[in-house]
Amino acid sequence: MGALVDDFIDNWLLYSSIPVVAALIGYLTKLVAIRMMFRPLEFVGVKPFLGWQGIVPKRAARMASIACDTMTQQLIRPAEVIDRLDADRIAKEIEKPLLAAVEEIVRDVAAEYQPGLWESLPNRVQRLVISRVQAEAPRMVSTVMDSIKADVDEVFDLKDMVVTSLVKDKELLNRIFQEAGRKEFQFIARSGLYFGAVIGVVQMAVWILFKLPIIMPLFGLFIGWFTDWLALKMIFHPRYPVRYFGLFEWQGLFLKRRAEVSEAYASLIAKEIITPHNVIEAVLRGPLSDKVLGLIQRQVDEELAKHASIAKPLVVLAVGSRRYQEMKLGISEQIMRRLPETMRYVEDYAEDAMDIRNILVRKMKELDAEEFEGLLRPAFQQDEWILITTGALLGAAVGEAQVQVLLLFGN
Known about the structure:
Helices cover 80% and strands 3% of the residues. By secondary structure, the protein is an all-alpha fold. A two-stranded antiparallel ribbon has the order 1-2. It has a two-stranded antiparallel sheet with strand order 3-4. The longest helix is centred in the middle third of the chain and has 29 residues, at 182-210.
């Protein structure tokens, strides 16, 4: 025993470095693991195997789909987004730009389908035609909005909108998980430091006793693996507070922060994804936009039938039956093309009316522990073993370097 004490006294500085290095192994392997989850956004290296792409960006479509399923199945539904919009208020908000757009549409369509005829009409007659269409335009928009609200699932694919946004913008997808798990990722890095230091003390004692070179890489491997595994466990488990040894209470860190996470998550979704602009774009230009065009077409048909019952035979005679149908379609398509730009004027009202952030916060607080865990857990579940294995291998490599230093400077 005396020889061991003398050995420690002679080499105390060198031996004391073992827990310090172990702590650094734990900390650095966590930083690398977190980095590998989100970076790089695109594959770097030689495909298919020699290189790396961040786990979340690599699985962008699946990650986005999982995040969206939680969002749309448990937090918010298309009807909740659209139902809060008042059709008459929208028509009023866009009235001025809509009237200007209608005038251009009437002139363009008339000039296209009966060249020369529109230009030959007296200015007073042109203004009369335009003013009649303008007078009905707000009511038509209101009617179309009511039709959309009555059958919102037929014209608005919320999941497609969310998934498309996240797959297209992988940085935004990263931010969702990083924002939701900001403190959890900090905890992972710090826990590696603390757990590594504790294990390093044991590692130091074993080295002093046996001085076997294999000890250091094995401990490094264990530190890298165990601290990764334990940190992940402590983030999500237990789901409810549990007292250990009668001394301290622990609840999965992510679940304990439910209120804080809800606020951050809801703010990001409302600001970046389910925005009035994105919703309007999805309705008017998304995969179901043909059905919106159909609604507008039917409304155009009704308006033409209502106000042109006498003139219609003359119009049909002038342009031909087929051209008349094309003209109606042309009007509808022009309206569809102009609506996204026109609807910009309604975004401030829509943001207040939809109140996405507060809806999400309220719904998130109603989730049970397992459902709430699903907001962040997918980021870790995908290829989690790769992260833990990488941590272990990095730990082993540093442990091997430790051996060389100890053999070089030890007595």
